[in-house]
Amino acid sequence: MSWFSVSRFGAVLYKEFIQMRRDRMTFAMMIGIPILQLVMFGYIINSDPHHLPTLIEMADESPVARAVLSGMETSDYFKFEGIVTSAEEGDQALRDGTANFVVVIPPNFERDIVRGLSPKLLVSADASDPTAVGTAVGALSGIIDTAVKQTFQGPLAPVAGQPPPFSVVVHKQFNPASKTSLNIVPGLIAVILAMTMVLITAIAIVRETERGTMETLIATPVRPLEVMLGKILPYVVIGYIQTVVFLIAGKLLFGVPFLGSGLAFFIGFNLYIVVNLALGFLISTLVRTQMQAMQASFMTILPTILLSGFMFPYAGMPGWAQVIGSAIPATHFLRIVRKVMLKGAHLADITGDLRAIAIIGVVIMLISMLRYRQTLD
Amino acid sequence: MSTTPADSVSDRSEPAIVVKGLTKIYNGKKVVNEVDMSVPKGAIYGFIGPNGSGKTTTIRMMCALLTPDGGEGHTLGYDIHKDARAIKENVGYMTQKFSLYGDLTIRENLDFMARMYRVKNRKKVVDETLRTLGLEGRGKQLAGTLSGGWKQRLALAACMQHKPALLLLDEPTAGVDPKARRDFWDEIRQLSKQGVTVLVSTHYMDEAVQCDYIAYIAYGKKLIDGPATEIPHQVGLTTWRVSGPDLVQLEEELRADPRVEQVARFGAQLHVSSTDSAGLDAVVAEKSGENDARKWEKKEAELEEVFIYLMATAADNFGVNGGPSA
């Protein structure tokens, strides 16, 4: 049997296993990625998110109003986080993302019910992420019906029949048609920027080391800052071009508006790019080859897509996943982009997100500085 | 072939490189172990040693790419601990691997390096470099497409554009064909004539003999250094050369003899060496009586025999003392 030698085949097989085991990075990826994906897809993806932050504007504190609210809260979809006293305050909360819903109980709610005037209960929903609020909105009428049936007993029993004693008006703000593309396109800017900036920076720096050109470079009088800035700036330009293309294409193809402050967007955008470049730089100090740089970048991109709220509603993720998600720069930039583009947010509305990105950035830079010093020798 | 080093030795001017007790530790292992060296101005200084002996690390410390863990030194009068930038500006360093940009053209590479050193009249200098290289017509060719020999000449030219007084070449001819190696050495000698000090590491013996001075390093320890012509004398090795029939048989017999320290085959000859000159002569007297067809000839040991001898001794003493000192 000279056409196939089992021992030669075995030798190749054995060699391949040895090499696979020696390349720790790849090995870790092979084991790590499936586990990561399993956990993320299994636990985090939740298109039926509960406990959505909700604010109440209470112009009527009657037992009926209380019954409706407690019905909503026991449904687990809504989590009441406070009271607002004016419509402006409610709008602001929706715009800066502190609440997904604002429930408005109109004045004389109970009295109007008793009089058969069928008052309107207003629910303002932040529909910029239609998936996040969609199921809660859908469940709303059922929840209220049940609450009403339990309340209107005894003397109030007659009004509980047909027609319904009051109507629920859902006001889908920022994205009335619940178009998913309005949510996805701004989110894509955050994800695509993260992918290119991290990957390209990591690879561009590792490539110099791998090809041996870094040694020549270091042997010249060039200063590290000159190298870093010179290497990174071209990719910042790429990031600018990508974003402009995205904004234009998003507008032309999907009708995604840009309602908010250009300045707020510009500041958030630049901060985000800097943080991603720093992350790419950090990766480049941790790996030795371009292949490893690619794998490591991929490791950061996966959570960026899955945990940032880009693909699946942040509010639907379990608490621990939200903690991880809040450490990802894209999570915060995503919010900035959606707020500015869809909700017309201004600089004041995004300060919290800016601060979060800045903190992440400082931490990444500190770590990479420590790493860089060690790799000089 | 080598110039007369005696002149340079008497030269009172400060050496181009002088290091004392230079030490570098990686993972608890002394890859460079208290190396003392002095490279006279204007000399071609050969830095010889097997692979992994610490040559590259030593050179990197001399041009301030690495911080020594111990020892001190001056390169071109600048402190290797403190004056890294001044050293980098005045030294030309050529790395072992071709490390210009393969995806830039020849001209772009030269231009880039000229800008790194802030060379004045850049355009003129780059043109001049291309002309000297004989690559005027090929400035737009990608550097990655050059042959191994040309890549090395390009790299050499690139690190000479800022007219450094000292050139550090780390195995510049490794993996380059013999013709290209000869051309490369012609260029090194040209530069030396113009007054440039050249420190070149190599493990080719035919290159070692072209140097004015030599330092031999193994396992991170400098075993010997001095003017090339004096090295064999310093070691005190006596060598007999023998040619004739049945050398394989003779080689075995000689190896078994404790008075013979080294038997090495060079073409059709055996080179039989020992530091025990009298003992060796006695062995030769015995053996030459056995077979008249063999021709025996006593000669001064050459560098190659000396280095083989040093290497063998160093290996024996690794971790203890590091072999004979100069």
From TrEMBL, chain A:
Keyword check for Magnesium: no
Protein's cellular compartments: Cell membrane
InterPro entries hit by this protein: ABC-2_transporter_component, ABC2_TM, ABC2_TM_bact-type
Transmembrane segments: 25-45, 184-206, 232-256, 262-284, 296-315, 354-372
Chief location bin: membrane
Keywords attached to this entry: Cell membrane, Membrane, Transmembrane, Transmembrane helix, Transport
Protein topology in the membrane: Multi-pass membrane protein
Entry superkingdom: Bacteria
Similarity annotation: Belongs to the ABC-2 integral membrane protein family.
Protein name per its UniProtKB record: Mannose-1-phosphate guanyltransferase
Lineage: Bacteria, Pseudomonadati, Pseudomonadota, Alphaproteobacteria, Rhodobacterales
TrEMBL record, chain B:
Keyword ATP-binding listed: yes
PROSITE patterns assigned: ABC_TRANSPORTER_1, ABC_TRANSPORTER_2
Domain of life: Bacteria
InterPro entries with a match to the protein in the record: AAA+_ATPase, ABC_transporter-like_ATP-bd, ABC_transporter-like_CS, P-loop_NTPase
Protein name: Multidrug ABC transporter ATP-binding protein
Residue span(s) of domain ABC transporter: 17-244
GO molecular function, one term: ATP binding
KW Chloroplast (keyword) present: no
Organism: Thioclava sediminum
Keywords (A to Z) from UniProt: ATP-binding, Nucleotide-binding
Gene3D superfamilies listed in its UniProt record: P-loop containing nucleotide triphosphate hydrolases (3.40.50.300)
